[in-house]
């Protein structure tokens, strides 16, 4: 037995509507179960109950056993003074408020059908699944329920990223251009170097980036220098030495401090080396002085046209400083442009539209639907369950589903898991 099942039972009234009584014999009529609280404090706010036909309004706390009230020290917390009902599975101890008054208790053990308990236990029985709890029943869930849940997950994923964007706005004094710069850096750094790349962006006053528009040597020297990639000496590499000299000047002029941690090269393909990614991003900002308008404010951004600038000629036969390689163009690939749309442009569009007070979910949904699906092990596993993943919108929502619900056993907060318990969320 887990508390989340009791929350589920209480929230969706999976108990007999009539005939409920407290452990002390008071008749209970549940007028409103209240608002489910997922943060600290009582589990349900603003519930309404009739106890022996007298209406009470207040909060509801839920535990496995009554004695958990004291195990969690609620008797010392003023946040629990307004609890009007203690809902438990087993009543093993009388519970009192701080003022000495006893809290009515509802023990659910005698009221819950065994079918609900069996369904719940089967859902979490590790012997029944290899990937996710409901994998044997997933394909059986009504398509209407799944489709609506997927749309909600898509918006939920954007809202989570919106929290990160709001934090960056606070750090940059609401400078949207700077936030775009930081988020682009994080995406260019990928999983290996994303955080380090963002720290590089935070170490630079964005006004300096604007001043280096149309100045490729200065822009590259700034970013490479801040990334600690211009350390050491290479007398045979003129471009490296030019960058190093220019960075020394910029560092003194703007009183710069480079990041503490240098980007990683280990386990990366040459095309993803931090040197190449920094050179590519540098080229974008050398070519464009108003990327936020071009990528975020426009309804349909020409991402390929804007973010496909040619990088310095030096990199045509280099992946790292001082080491020549076979000559090749180092333009960003279409698949990487898709990643930029998924991880940076669409989340920023959502955040900016919300900031302005008008979010066009349909347009954002279309942008994501027009992008090819992501290919990874997780999406492949959902495919084996009979799931059809057509676009990035689908792959992003299934990632959200797995990371926020399946992997955390939050099945009763998921429309799919709840439907298997025969209830809508």
UniProtKB/TrEMBL annotation:
<dbReference type="Pfam" id="PF11013">
    <property type="entry name" value="DUF2851"/>
</dbReference>
<protein>
    <recommendedName>
        <fullName>DUF2851 domain-containing protein</fullName>
    </recommendedName>
</protein>
<dbReference type="InterPro" id="IPR021272">
    <property type="entry name" value="DUF2851"/>
</dbReference>
